[in-house]
Amino acid sequence: MSWTKNTWKRITPLYEKILAMPFNQELMQGTLPLEKFKFYMAQDAYYLGEFGKALSTLSGRMEKMAHVLEFAHFAAGAIEVERALHESYFKTLGIPDTIEPSPSCLLYTNFLLKEAKYADLATAVAAVLPCFWIYKKVGDHIFEQQSSVENNPYKNWIDTYSGEAFAESVQKAISITDELAEQSSPSANEAMFKAFEMASKLEWMFWDSAYRLEKWPV
Ligand SMILES: Cc1ncc(CO)c(N)n1
């Protein structure tokens, strides 16, 4: 079984917890309070900027030119979405341009940047994979449940992550990860799993922190 297939099997209970989160359930129903969505959007713009930098770092670490190029495309994609958020949601929702990251957002982005720079290459790639794959799965799931919901105010968000363009990137990220996993030892494959699991937990925390409108304790 491929590394990604096995990993998804192991991560399924956590993925199911993510689907059941009130943030995602209410987003799916269109009942998520706007204040929580705005908080999420602002934090996600910060996240995407840092995610883009992590992908850029990974691009430069790749050995195969095809992979250098793919990761450069992923990085550009993340920054373009970040820019688009400022032009669309930020303006319509009145979100200020400068964003202070919440504790969970800073924890997640700093984890990704640290892995991208210092971890073994295959592990570093495994650390960024949940950002692609979990969003794709969550986006698809929410999209499939949409038939019963009319005029969902969060339709734009849902369309982005259930769309074809994002699906293509996710597929590429999965196949690059499997390629690197095949060239790695069993113990390196387990280190990859640990990084994937950590990033998946941080995805859960990111949604949870938005739902709680997380503040710094001091
Ligand atoms: C927190 C988070 N993870 C993943 C994505 C998708 O790239 C996103 N926009 N935000």
From TrEMBL:
In the UniProt record, does the keyword Mitochondrion occur? no
- The Thiaminase-2/PQQC domain sits at 8-212
Q: State any GO BP term from the record.
A: thiamine biosynthetic process
Note the InterPro entries from the entry: Haem_Oase-like_multi-hlx, Thiaminase-2/PQQC, Thiaminase_II, Thiamine_Salvage_TenA
* Transmembrane region(s): none
Q: Which family is this sequence assigned to?
A: Belongs to the TenA family.
State the protein's name: Aminopyrimidine aminohydrolase
**Lineage per the UniProt record:** Bacteria, Pseudomonadati, Bacteroidota, Cytophagia, Cytophagales
